[in-house]
Amino acid sequence: MAIRSETVVRISFPYLTNLIVSMPFFGMIASFITSVLFTKEQIFESECGSLNFIPSMSSVIGVSPGKYIWRMCIAIHCFPRFLIACLYHNQFNTCLQKLKIRWNQANNSAYDATSKFSVHTLMKYLIRLNTCLEICEVICLIFISYISTKENYTLHEKAFITFMLSSTMRMITCLILFRYLLFKPYERRLIRLNQNATSKQENQMKNNFESSYRWKFRLFYSSCFFSAILIYFYLKHVFYCSNGVGQGSTAWSYFSLCEYIICMLIMGYHATVCWDFNHFELTIYNKTTTKLNFSLLTSENEQSDESDVDYNHSDNHSKKIE
């Protein structure tokens, strides 16, 4: 008889994803509102006197009480992000190993074998790069959140640039890996099988991967588009300030608007995780109880096997007597 586990916590991954994405979104909205209400003079000021009708996100999360709300939300947000990075790393590696097994089973020429080996090596390094970029993105987000422009402008600026670069490059690597290791192989597998023979769960997974890939693609291109606009207005603002004609310029306000849009696009990109790991759940269990259950189950199976052997032996013996 199995022993009931004392501590079991199961959290659905889509639910966890909603929590991960909602924290920065809630923090951004709450910080913006509180900063506008209580510290309006600080967040709308500019070094060169430009007209700011939208405060920059760095200003909003750099003054109290908005910065405390933002930091609490980011503290809750960041730990699951490291977990998601590990999940993507393991999932991509598993899919790559399956792809390698299928290649080995197929009869190909020496040229095909060489090209596939090169693709396998490239994908392996892309997986590592994708994981490093995601970890770098999270670390830079922590730097941006906890080191404001008023405390250390240079470090905050470098962290923001690194965050933007790592986030964009991570989107690219994730799209490549997702397309060639998850979406396309699974789609080809379902095509090879009879459509009537596929289960409802397999069709659901295909739809999830398809929706995830399409939305990743759209959000990535939207993010690149607004990033280009952000760079344009940033350079325009720097040009006006360096030439002493910042008064009357609204370049910084448009830069700030692009900041908010890009942040929401990145949040949406991360929200696609709920499709990628829709069948996953985070489980916390009692390790000791689980080991005892496994030992009891093993002993029960051994006893049942021994009883079956004894029964067969006695049955054969009775037949011989007859």
General description of the model:
- This is CWH43-like N-terminal domain-containing protein.
- The chain has 322 residues and is mainly alpha-helical.
- The protein has one domain (8-302).
- Helices cover 79% and strands 3% of the residues.
- The protein has helices spanning 13-38, 40-43, 57-60, 66-105, 110-146, 153-192, 200-242, 251-271, 273-276, 287-321, and strands at 8-12, 281-285.
- The chain has a two-stranded antiparallel sheet.
- Helix 4 packs parallel to helix 6.
- The longest helix is centred in the last third of the chain and has 43 residues, at 200-242.
Question: Which terms summarize this structure?
Answer:
single chain, mainly alpha, 2 strands
Helix content: over 70%
Taking strands numbered 1, 2, ... along the chain, how are they ordered across the largest sheet?
Answer: 1-2
Given helix and strand content, the structural type is: mainly alpha
Number of separate domains: 1
Note the main sheet.
2 strands, antiparallel
- The run of helices and strands is EHHHHHHHHHEH
Question: How many E-type strands?
Answer: 2
Unreliable spans:
316-322
In whole angstroms, the N-to-C terminal distance is 39 Å
* Mean pLDDT value: 79
Rg result: 28 Å
How much of the sequence lies in strands comes to under 5%
Shape: globular
Report the total helices.
Answer: 10
Task: Provide a short characterization of the protein structure.
The protein has 322 residues and is mainly alpha-helical.
